[in-house]
Amino acid sequence: PARAPRPPPAAATAASEPPPLETLLPIAAAGSDVLAPVAGQRSQAMPSMLEIVTGQRDRLRERTGDLEQERDRWRSAAEQERQRAEALHADNVKLLERARYLQSFQPKQGGGGPGRATRGGRAAGGRADRDLESRY
């Protein structure tokens, strides 16, 4: 199979040549020697590797602290909701016990008549009410 001929290298580089450095970096256009520091002389515009790594470390520590605080807030919220759920469960159990206790004094259908209660609830009068109040 024949391949298409390649364009000459000069034509290819002219079309895809990157823009000059002066247009990308305003510092280079100003004629500063930032891009070519003299040996032993540190540039104020270019941080050292130590400064970069130290900055990353500090940002990581700050982010870690923020995440730990958020985790603690979530833990306390979860604990409060757990306690709330336990309290609601206990209330539900008490209400269910009360309902069953009160149902035990309801007249049975087809039993001894509409006015009679089982377990002596109505016959005992106010005693059943006092027992209910003292129980809870």
From TrEMBL:
Pfam families: CASP_C
InterPro entries (UniProt xref): CASP_C
Organism: Pyrodinium bahamense
GO biological process entries: intra-Golgi vesicle-mediated transport
Protein's name according to its UniProt entry: CASP C-terminal domain-containing protein
Lineage: Eukaryota, Sar, Alveolata, Dinophyceae, Gonyaulacales
Compositionally biased residues, Pro residues: 1-10
Ranges for region Disordered: 1-20, 55-80, 103-136
Domain CASP C-terminal span(s) in chain numbering: 41-112
Domain of life: Eukaryota
Compositionally biased region (Basic and acidic residues): 56-80, 127-136
GO cellular component, one term: Golgi membrane
